[in-house]
Fold each of these.
Amino acid sequence: MEAIKKIHHITAIVGDPNENLKFYRDVLGLRLIKQTVNFDDPGVYHLYFGDHNDTPGTVITFFPWTNDNKGRKGSGQVGRIAFRVPKGSLGYWKEQLTTQNLKVELTQLFGKDTLEFDDVHGLELAIVEGNAPADNHDIVGFHGSVLLSANPEGTKELLTDIMGLKQLDIKGDNYHFETVGEEKHHIISSIPPQAAGRFGIGTVHHIAWSVPDLDVLKAWQDTLHESGFGVTEVRDRNYFKSIYTSEKGNVVFEFATDGPGFDLDEDKNSLGTALKLPEQYEHRREEYETSLPKLDL
Ligand code: ZN
């Protein structure tokens, strides 16, 4: 198999959808690119955010739960999610986040200066500078993420031997990997195994890896199956096709095709401005439009 080149999207569980929208749009400057429902639990929104340049590998998506089922961070989850900003922007972001009364900590988590902070629902985030300067400070995509593995050796084997990520130097208690595509997404996995987490508000549900098309997706399905992983059938997510597996450290890995893309059912310029439903739920539109909280667009 050809190596996995980049992250496709990361999906987390958060609280109130308007608080979620306000944070990612107004504080981080991302763009709401799709309002739909969770295809597996359609009474809940599924909100997708990207950057303003349609950069592939920037999509962070949320299931905003309106109950108060807080999650517990731990193994079987993706941990801190890092965004990348242009070279020379870290000072700007430190000030920007501090002005919003967020607690910001400067660490070396990703092997270089890393601003760690939490979103409005306790989801762990970070900002790291990339190597390219720009004429603004806008987020240009993911820098990478932490994986909370129950079996760091097993996770490492899948990432390097099967998925083709490059292993970088071990720093402290962490494995450090890098995807081989031009985005060079960084994956950190702590070497001591983590205690089990529980999904809920403030936790990440899964990470999706980008594959070019359906043929390659099916080849990954075979490869994972032959390597002893349980893997789902191909699921139609409308904007992409997906398979899911639970890796050896219990983190949910999705493999998702790059196409057909988010402009499948709305114009590129009006992405995210209206509730979009897949065919199978269109007949229940009225019900969802009544029950889902109105978004302050
Ligand atoms: Zn997904």
Amino acid sequence: MSYDDSNIFAKILRNEIPCEKIYEDEFVLSFHDINPQKKIHALVIPKGKYIDLDDFSNNASKEEIVGLIKGINIVAKKLGISKDVGKGYRALSNINEHGGQEVPHLHFHLFGGEKIGKMVE
Ligand code: AMP
């Protein structure tokens, strides 16, 4: 499967549709999920064209990988949910069919602001 340039996060990255931006740098863009599942529900996506975590792990540069992991922490701090400044959160990435991935551009969900509860249903 190749990367689909028409996915919704690709459109957000190209500024074709708006998002409620939280943070942006050279490697990542973060914005609030349009359909929040918890009090705080943010998304962190790499700027590069990667379908999912497997694709990213296989093909991204070391700088991009570090940039995404660091980006998650920067966003969590900004939202007041990282362990340094808050009470913690859950970072989750769905991969392909069994993972329940809907948007085929790698993204991490950050859930916080309250107890997140059971890990899987
Ligand atoms: P996943 O099922 O892991 O692919 O998650 C996709 C997420 O993207 C869902 O939580 C959606 O609510 C969210 N989403 C879809 N469209 C948008 C959008 N335009 N802005 C922000 N979040 C979106």
